[in-house]
Amino acid sequence: MSPAIRRSRLPTRGTSPSRPWLALPLAALVLVVSIGVAVTIGPADLTLSEVGRSVATHLGVGGALGLEPLSALRDGMVWQLRMPRILTAAAVGAGLAVCGAVMQSLTRNPLADPYLLGLSSGASLGAVLVLLAGVPLLLPVAAFVGAVGALALALSLAGALGTITPTRTVLAGLAISQLCAAAVSFVIFWSAKGDAFREVLSWLMGSVASATWTSVAVAGGAVLVLGTLLALTGSVLDAFTFGDTAAAALGVPVNRARWILLIGVALLTGALVSQSGSIGFVGLILPHAVRLFTGARHRLLLPLSALAGGSFLVWADTLARTVFEPRELPVGIVTAAIGAPVFAFLLWRGNHR
Amino acid sequence: MPTTQRGLTAERVSWGIDGQLILDDVGVLAPAGAVTGLLGPNGSGKSTLLRVLAGVQQAGRQAASGPGPTTTFDGADLRALPRRERARVLALVEQDAGTDLPLTVLDAVLLGRIPHRSLLAGDSDADRAAAHTALAAAGAQELADREVGTLSGGERQRVHMARALAQRPRLILLDEPTNHLDIAAQLHAMRVLRDLAADGVTVVAALHDLNLAASTCDHLVLLDGGRVVAAGPVGEVLVPAVLEPVYGVRVDVLTHPRTGRPVLSFDRG
Amino acid sequence: MHPHRVRPARAFALPAVAALALAACSPTASGETATDDATPPGSFPVSLDNCGFETEVEAPPERVVTIKSSTTEMLLALGLGDRIVGSAFLDGPVPDSLETVPAVEEPFAAEAPGSEATLELEPDLVYAGWESNLTAETAGDRETLARLGVATYVSPAACKEDGYMPDPLTFDTVFDEIAEVGSLFGAEDAAARLVDEQRAALDAIEPDDRGRTALWWSSGDDAPYVGAGIGAPQMIMEAAGLTNVAADVHDTWTSLGWENVVEADPDVLVLVDAAWNPADTKIETLESNPATREMTAVKERRYVVVPFPATEAGVRNVDAVASVVEQLADLDR
Fold first, then answer.
1. Tens digit of pLDDT for each residue in B204-253?
2. Would you identify the CATH topology of the domain C207-331?
3. Per-residue model confidence (pLDDT) at position A19
């Protein structure tokens, strides 16, 4: 290879077998450490040893280590507030990043994110309806139903126009998003009582503040099942790299694959949105950032995006909890504040390569 | 009755959309070990025919009446083959397929191995070896570590050819493989096709440049308005009586002093 | 000429000082716990239906976090200031008539606090002025706090649920809340005394009898957020002898278009003075806008100013009525 040709602008990457596969265990380690460190950080002045004692007690090793349990309240802060919240953030971040990567490849649109098919607006509509109707217990269900409903609408709209091509998918999703967003605004405007809009607003911006162990089970379970399945579709998504025809020529059943993947993304996103509201930018930025290291092949991109997305949201939420202490921010504000400039940077970098 | 013959045999291929017939009862015969050129003016249906033959043309309607179309390759019905199996027999090189994604050339070529391995598997050493062989065959070995987005048109065409070759096809369909290439790159591309044919591969290439077809192809199929107007050896198709009504220009056919192949010269009619 | 108008708190607080000072001197203020305050044993545990959520305390709460002025001042007025371990989101200074405590003088959060910041104070009760102070983003949702052994209580007048939202809010509702808080803290006697004093002070007020109409402008510029038919503004205006021009809107507060305001052309404008939206600014807006400039109340400068903390249901409403009546009388001097 001539030196002139090797002088490409990015560090050459990708195909040597040793390096990329090291990235996975490394990213997994970063995620675990992030969770471990984040749980010791918060507005409340809990010491490391207190957090350690609480976690050890609940993992059933506290007694064996001869540790004294914390007061119910301090223990609750660690185990009922911080821990579920951080784990939910990790699961939601991981799921959104995978869904974002899949959507970007499936629609061959670098601006695609998990909410592309109107999922977040549909979920918001469902959530806002139950919040304002005063039955917040139904919120996760309503959000999920809203998300899947919006997906069904968007796909039937795209399907009604003919084959589900990337462009039609994007346009149909946009139309449904706008429709649902208008409906959300109308519902809020029409019926928000007193300061009920605050709750709605924090939900619309995306937050894991209300996470419980149930949220961990729903978001974590969805990511483990659907996220893993999606992450295994790397070869299929690879085949879409040069478009639908190229994918078909490589033996991929293009339409069926697109339907199945879209529905998988929708179910996973719906489950995540039901727990956290629609947290922006994670699904958009993370896949782009990870691609800088892995290249476009999905076998590594998908799991690495998941692990990186999990760590990212854990830290974003830690910022949300602590920056304006004693106030807390919805994490969606933090991801947007970080995501928008990062996205601008990626765009700029793309132009200067 | 179609005889069992090596190569591609397509009969009664029709395809239309929105009530307009793009291909009307087309038949193609492309023998193994030969380069078959698909000629015709813009809009004559060359690209559509290639995609229909490759089984990747979506939607649209077949002609309703009469016996259905057949596409057989080496005696096997291509339409009846499962997709992945078909992708191991047949490769398609599209025109201007690009991507915005950051992808190295080697990764792009490795995509051609997808039909040959389990959907869950990663690249094996055998896959990488096949990719390097394909890169070498396409004359793109030195590009392996480059990023696809940074390649010139000719380089990209070689990469797409290498990707198709990595599929190890016995039938390769190419849509304008010399489009936008400079003359050296055009000749290089045609050289690769000739080498493939020499290895026994069935090559079908849609071509714009009649002189390139004249110098490279063994057989030609000339399309006009979705119908086959002529088919056969180069010397039978590239004659003024056939070409002039199709292209609407005056054609003079000369003979190449070294190769003895036809050389065409055109005037406004 | 405005400055003395926009700080009426001191002026109108005077008549009530004597009354409230009594409460501040009740035994609970001297460091004894409420259980000693002649409360018959056996009234605990207390369980209340609070905005549709069950508030349950086993014993009189000893460590209380108050959120917003209305709740903080309620406890101070009941002489329960020593129970406050932390106070947040205060709408303005505590009136001089109330004896304050360090936790109130230095609030732990200027706005609605988050859950960890709240729980760090290890409260046994969080007493919130608004339902939105008790959500996951703020001090924590009520179920979660209950699971952690922290009771929650929202000022009942702030309940938004159907069947719980006072419709309309009356002084009886306000006095009932005082009594309910008294029972929650085992301070029934102090609460009864405070209610008696407040009732007496209210009865002593001679409402303005000139049949004047008024608009209560709380906040908002694009579309003013005004006191409507069933909330504290309506209650205060009615008691002061004013007719609320937005009384036919069945809500506590409502947004009203400027066109409606100008058309209604009330005799008097009641302006709420809040740090984030001072009465001065409101007056400037009114006098600079060509449409509102022509309103009778603006031309005659008939403004009545009420401090924001006095405009939510609580112990300062009676004083607010007295102040409004006094300012109305002043307008014609």
1. 999 999 999 999 999 999 999 999 999 999 999 999 999 999 999 999 99
2. Rossmann fold (3.40.50)
3. 58
Rounded percentage of chain C residues whose pLDDT exceeds 90: 65
Residue contact A162–B167, C-beta within 8 A: no
**C13-202 and C207-331 agree in CATH topology:** yes
**pTM score, whole prediction:** 0.81
Q: What is d(CA C156, CA B196) in angstroms, rounded to the nearest whole number?
A: 85
Contacts of C149 in chain A (CB under 8 A): 72-73, 76
Give the whole-angstrom CA distance, residue B251 versus residue C222. Answer: 78
Q: What whole-number distance in Å separates Cα of residue A112 and Cα of residue A93?
A: 16
Fold assignment, A95-279: ABC transporter involved in vitamin B12 uptake, BtuC (1.10.3470)
Question: What are the boundaries of each domain within chain A?
Answer: 95-279
Q: What confidence tens digit (pLDDT) does each residue in C131-150 have? A: 889 988 889 989 999 999 99
The whole-number pLDDT of residue C318 equals 96
DSSP B171-231: EEEEESTTTT--HHHHHHHHHHHHHHHHTT-EEEEE-S-HHHHHHH-SEEEEEETTEEEEE
For the C13-202 domain, the top CATH level (class) is alpha beta
Give the closest of B102, B142, B144 to A291, CB-based.
B102
Q: Is the pLDDT of residue B26 over 60?
A: yes
* Dihedral angle sign, alpha carbons of residues A236, A238, A243, A246: negative
Cα separation, C192 vs C189, whole angstroms: 5
Give this complex's ipTM.
0.89
**B22 SS3 class:** strand
Q: Does A241 contact B144 at a Cβ distance shorter than 8 Å? A: no
Please indicate whether, in this complex, the C-beta atoms of A245 and B97 are within 8 angstroms of each other: yes
User: What does the pLDDT look like over C156-175, one tens digit per residue?
Assistant: 999 888 889 999 999 999 99
Selected residue of B49, B56, B150 to mutate for chain A interface (largest A Cβ count, 10 A)? B56
Confidence band, pLDDT 50/70/90 cuts, at residue B47: very high
Residues 50-79 of B with CB under 8 A from A: 51, 54-56, 58-59
Domain ranges of chain C: 13-202, 207-331
R_g over Cα of chain B:
19
For A91-148, how does the pLDDT look when each residue is reduced to its tens digit (9 = 90+)? 999 999 999 999 999 888 888 888 888 888 888 888 888 877 767 678 888 888 998 8
Name C314's Cβ contacts closer than 8 Å, sequence gap at least 6.
C69, C70, C71, C73, C74, C155, C157, C174, C177
